[in-house]
Amino acid sequence: MEFHALKLEDKPILDPFFRARRYENSHFNFTTIFIWRDLYDMHWAIEDDVLFLTAKFEGRYMVLSSFGPEEKMTAAAIKMEKWMKSVGQPFFAYGLEKSLADVYLALPGRDYAVDSSRNEADYLYNTQDLINLSGRKYHTKKNHLNAFWRSYPDAEYLPITDDIVPECKLNMNTWYKKLLAETPDDPYIGTERTAVMEILNNFPSFGLKGGALKVGQRIVAFTFGEMLNDDTVVIHVEKASPDVRGAYAAINQAFLEHEWADVPFVNRQEDMGLEGLRKAKESYRPVRMIEKFIVAPKGAKELEEP
Fold first, then answer.
1. Runs of H (alpha helix) within 183-303
2. What gap in Å lies between CA 306 and CA 298, rounded to an integer?
3. 119, exposed or middle or buried, with CB in 10 Å at 0-12, 13-18, 19+?
4. Neighbours of 169 (CB within 10 A)
5. 3-state SS, residue 156
6. In 3-state terms, what secondary structure has residue 267?
7. Distances, alpha carbon 46 to alpha carbons 14, 216, 295, in Å
8. Which of 33, 209, 247, 271 is the right S-S partner for 221, CB 3.0 to 4.6 Å?
9. Secondary structure of 205-216 in HEC code, one letter for each residue
10. Sheet containing 93-96: which strands, arranged edge to edge?
11. pLDDT tens digits along 65-80
């Protein structure tokens, strides 16, 4: 197989594979893999009507999901085993849905184990719950939302268009600079900043919906997402000014209300094992967690939760 580094021009080639079957994993779309393509050295190849994805992080190669007809997944799994042998490392597959993990488990004569990572599980919410924030369980969230609108009664929700992209980028740089100053060794912050800037520079090419909150002449929050499957929207990025109380709650609620009110569910991705992020995501009361699975030889350290 001939693998290629991921580029924006590849989107029309890869999109049909993500849409041909119903997937719940928030990573299974072009935008997500584009955001993390450099940090994880992601590559793709197509053979026999199957899309293959691979990655490498800190010198460790890994197999990502394969996408194609269900009846071709066993042959695809065997091809990826051979690919791992070709790079001289033991087999390791990451971020799979259960159906493909089971394909690897069913291969005869192997000694694989499968595990789901709590740190990587996606949070799935009822969209109307996050719009209405009704009841005692959302009391604190409603307070944050009300505080924002009391403090900024003239704040305006705007869809992301070319007219406001420059202001989004300007404020984004300010927020990211603060984050980088606080955690200069975090590789994810710089990677995300660069990718979000690329997406904003080419926003129409990604087919996303985006929204922003404007206070006076200042963008204080913005977000963007897209349909993940037939009943779920995935939120890719949500950024808000840290000095504006309630900005995160306000952009979360306003974006869903204005753009996705007719979509039953929203996937807000994983918490990566970060305590503060986990607490925040759990506080919005997910209706279900979307598991992602690791496949590796039994006893491999990759099967251990960090």
1. 187-201, 203-206, 247-259, 275-283
2. 17
3. middle
4. 15
5. strand
6. strand
7. 9, 49, 22
8. 247
9. HHCCEEEEEEEC
10. 4-5, 43-47, 50-57, 60-67, 93-96, 293-297, 112-116
11. 999 999 999 999 999 9
